[in-house]
Amino acid sequence: MVIASLRDLQEVSFDEASNGLEAIEHLALTSVGLVVLDLNMPDMHGLEVVKFVRQHQAYRAIPIIVLTTRGDETSRLAVMAAGASVYLTKPFLPSALAASARELLQGKSSG
Predict the structure, then answer these.
(1) Structural domain total, the chain
(2) Residue 46 CB coordination number (10 Å)
(3) Does the pTM exceed 0.85?
(4) CB 50 within 8 A of CB 84
(5) For the chain, how big is the Rg over CA atoms in Å?
(6) Which of 7, 49, 84, 85 shows a CA-CA span of 20 to 30 A to 39?
(7) For position 49, which CATH number holds?
(8) CA 79, 17, 100, 53 torsion: positive or negative?
(9) What does each C-alpha distance from 41 to 8, 46, 47, 48 come to in angstroms?
(10) Among 63, 55, 56, 54, which residue's Cα sits nearest to residue 87?
(11) Is the peptide bond before 94 cis (omega within 30 degrees of 0)?
(12) In this structure, is residue 18 part of a structural domain?
C-alpha cells in the first residue's frame, strides 16, 4: 500500500526492509533519499530506527516518515522528538503520504 501510494513520484525507486535491523543495514549499503517506517517492527522498534538514523552523521539528513497504527499523543511526541519528519497514522490517505513524501524530497533537493 505504501509503495502504491508513492508510485507517481518522479524518479523514485523503492526498496523494502522486513524489520528495523534490515532497514539499518540497507542504509549502510544503499543511497537512501527517504525512509517510511512503522513503529511496530520485528527485531527493532521503529523509534529506535529513528534514533539510530539521527545519531549518525551520514544519515542525519534523510527525511523519515513514520506510518503507524499508534495514534496516541505520547507516541507521536516521542517519535517527533527523536527526529522523525512526519507522523501519519493508519489507516492513512495515500494522497497524504504522497504529498508528505513529495514535500520532503523536494525540500531535500533544494536544500
Answers:
(1) 1
(2) 24
(3) yes
(4) yes
(5) 13
(6) 7
(7) 3.40.50.2300
(8) positive
(9) 26, 6, 10, 10
(10) 63
(11) no
(12) no
Range of 102's domain? 34-110
Amino acid at 90: K
For residue 46, tell me if it sits in a domain.
yes
Residue 49 lies in a domain: yes
Q: Poorest-confidence range of 10-14, 38-42, 73-77, 101-105?
A: 10-14
Give the H/E segment covering residue 22: helix 20-29
Q: Is residue 15 part of a domain?
A: no
Give the Å distances, CA to CA, from 28 to 6, 23, 24.
23, 9, 7
Rounded Cα–Cα distance for residues 36 and 68 (Å): 10
Average pLDDT along the chain = 92
